[in-house]
Design a protein that fits this description.
The chain is mainly β. It is built from 3 helices and 16 strands. Strands 1, 3, 5, 6, 8, 12, 13 and 14 form an 8-stranded mixed β-sheet that branches. The two termini are 18 Å apart.
């Protein structure tokens, strides 16, 4: 699986899920063009989480958010900017079949993200859980950030060329196609269905 570049920033003890970037965004892209291939994150049960506790989690209460940060990962850029990135930045988790058997839980796909200005950036992907009455006795509003990962650097410039996928990326995408997670097109990966989510 393709996990080169930056990987886990924070894998919170509050989450039973390990986040791994299995398809990185391109190393370069043109301003305003969709990032191809689309970044894909896999969720798996963490090794130190008991099976009963992990299976008791409701994956439908989790969602992922994409933001844009500086190439060193230290400065948040979008937000606060509302024009630097376009596309769907909040997505649900696409559940994987047979999660109980091998620890695989699901996938997150950001299929239409565009960076609209030249520069060198990274995507920061964070996993959030919506509180439930049982988990939030205080009644406080808002979601709980349970982990994050950061992609490799993306160089956005007008002369960017679409690079061919490497064999490891092709093997990963073939596996995801067989599982029905994505479908292939001539130049990228696409979600199997059209509703919001991976």
């Amino acid at each position: 699986m393709s996990t080169s570049g930056n990987t886990a920033d924070a894998q919170s003890a509050l989450s039973p899920y390990q986040m791994d970037i299995i398809i990185q965004p391109p190393r370069e892209a043109r301003p305003g063009d969709a990032l191809l291939p689309a970044p894909i994150i896999q969720l798996r049960f963490r090794e130190n989480v008991g099976e009963e506790a992990a299976l008791a989690q409701d994956i439908s209460s989790y969602w992922a958010a994409a933001s844009l940060v500086s190439e060193d990962g230290m400065v948040a850029l979008a937000p606060p900017s509302t024009t630097l990135v376009s596309g769907t930045r909040l997505v649900s988790i696409q559940e994987a079949d047979g999660a109980e058997a091998d620890g695989e839980v699901g996938y997150v796909l950001f299929r239409n993200l565009c960076i609209n200005e030249p520069g060198r950036f990274c995507l920061h992907i964070s996993l959030h859980r919506m509180p439930t009455p049982e988990s939030d006795s205080s009644g406080a509003a808002g979601s709980l950030n349970t982990g994050s990962v950061t992609t490799r650097v993306i160089h956005v410039h007008h002369g960017a060329q679409v690079a061919p996928l490497g064999p490891e990326e092709r093997n990963t995408l073939t596996s995801l196609q067989r599982k029905g997670i994505i479908r292939a097109s001539s130049s990228t990966t696409e979600s199997e269905d059209d509703d919001e989510g991976a």
